[in-house]
Amino acid sequence: xxxxxxxxxxxxxxxxxxxxxxxxxxxxxxxxxxxxxxxxxxxxxxxxxxxxxxxxxxxxxxxxxxxxxxxxxxxxxxxxxxxxxxxxxxxxxxxxxxxxxxxxxxxxxxxxxxxxxxxxxxxxxxxxxxxxxxxxxxxxxxxxxxxxxxxxxxxxxxxxxxxxxxxxxxxxxxxxxxxxxxxxxxxxxxxxxxxxxxxxxxxxxxxxxxxxxxxxxxxxxxxxxxxxxxxxxxxxxxxxxxxxxxxxxxxxxxxxxxxxxxxxxxxxxxxxxxxxxxxxxxxxxxxxxxxxxxxxxxxxxxxxxxxxxxxxxxxxxxxxxxxxxxxxxxxxxxxxxxxxxxxxxxxxxxxxxxxxxxxxxxxxxxxxxxxxxxxxxxxxxxxxxxxxxxxxxxxxxxxxxxxxxxxxxxxxxxxxxxxxxxxxxxxxxxxxxxxxxxxxxxxxxxxxxxxxxxxxxxxxxxxxxxxxxxxxxxxxxxxxxxxxxxxxxxxxxxxxxxxxxxxxxxxxxxxxxxxxxxxxxxxxxxxxxxxxxxxxxxxxxxxxxxxxxxxxxxxxxxxxxxxxxxxxxxxxxxxxxxxxxxxxxxxxxxxxxxxxxxxxxxxxxxxxxxxxxxxxxxxxxxxxxxxxxxxxxxxxxxxxxxxxxxxxx
Length: 649
What we know:
- It is a single chain.
- The chain is α/β, with parallel strands linked by helices.
- It folds into three domains: 1-51 and 349-385 and 604-649; 53-148 and 189-329, Rossmann fold; 403-599, no CATH class.
- It is built from 23 helices and eleven strands.
- The protein has helices at residues 3-30, 36-50, 66-74, 121-124, 141-148, 159-164, 198-201, 212-217, 220-225, 244-254, 281-299, 311-320, 323-329, 331-385, 391-433, 435-451, 455-498, 511-527, 531-536, 539-572, 574-599, 604-636, 640-648; strands at residues 54-59, 95-98, 106-111, 132-135, 154-158, 182-186, 188-194, 204-208, 231-237, 264-269, 306-308.
- A nine-stranded mixed β-sheet has the order 4-3-7-2-8-1-9-10-11, with helices on both faces.
- Helix 2 (36-50) packs antiparallel against helix 14 and helix 15 (391-433) packs parallel to helix 16.
- It is globular and about 110 Å long.
């Protein structure tokens, strides 16, 4: 099955899942089982589903055919090339293809001069005024291609200006000066193409990278954009195999994930260069296979992770409807492998996230109905025992319920005290890893680096930043565990003393954020905080790179951590509060029922009958809850591949 078909099926699955969750949410509201916390959890679920993206990155040195491969796989339905693809460099800056319905079709270009600041690309995405926006004429393929050629634009600047912008002064990838002494650099730092193509509308995001030189100049690619990609296609040229620069890109930015990492695929492009009308097909195939084997050995990969194709012939075949040429291009083999590996893995991640959230919401609703049923049965039993009893027994029963109510209210006072401590501990977490605290640490580190007179001081400042960051994460992890132990103790007390139906508290850990910081520290130690870098660059340049390329990424990690901690803290004690409100309601109704019996015995049978009818309604709600849950789970665990094959048939 083609990647486009399977991704379309995945998008349809995601839409069906969102619709079933919306139906379940309405069912909860109609049956008085929803609350503010549940609404917030649904909103987060819908946000994850709506913002779900499938990110595919194409990485290679220049002239390997990245743009042509993108055209062949995703945009052959245009009847022509969408992305410019000519001899030489066609993509001079990292380029994202996506679709945002809130924007008109356009290409947004970030000037290369923004590299003089310590602001990362993701931060600049929040500043639309800093970008140059060019409209796309989607009704004219020729006009659109002409506009998209903007990504090939260059500037000629003095060598010192290029160095200041981060381009290397010497080495294999240093720009060569012309007769006028100027060097050529990309005009743009980053490009975002907003285009209403069907796949992009469904959430596909394509990242086209312009080779080792740009990857080294823009570390945000390796620190953020590439790690967030669900698939990375590394493209080689069949006529050259693995060159030294190819190997550098692979070893430094891709291959470290290991040969079994999902979503890491090598494409041996331009096999049509090996086609020879004077050689039999078997000899050509053997030559291609030999190149595959040699590339696999050089990269340390299994040969079945390398796919020989001709993107150019595949595109021509698709445009002209030439099935024989398409098969010879081997493009469908690559697409099958990519879709069979990528889409199921993407669905597994989304399914796991949605299932955990849904299971907890469903479980809370079930616990609430169980609590209502248990409370109702208790009331029925009490009223049944009052049949034929005198007023003294009724008075005793009133006193008993009032005693339980008083005891429960005493427990509530302890709970409110614990909730106050919970708030204090949560505030202490934000004091340690909140964005204000990070800004203070960043400013202090910057000051130390700018005032440094020795390279060792610069190095110590960078290490100190990471040491303090890790310490704050560890301190916060301790506070999180304190909160969990405290909430668990409160829950157990309410379960034992008052019979509340409570499940275990949702766990939370900062491990993934600590791992992210460790990855950044490793990158810093190998690319920036080295003897060579510190000795060959002035402190101003090292400081700028550290804050542009490293601390900006730490800030992103902390922003996500703060968001996730806030979300977790809101739902942590929500189940206790819901059960407390339910218990208060039950105690109030029990007291009212017995008091009415005291006032007039004529209402006793009527009350028992009413409660028996309510009991039947609760049983019906439980059945409805299970049916609604099965509907959601049926969609949740449906296979995208099976649905796509069924729809195709």
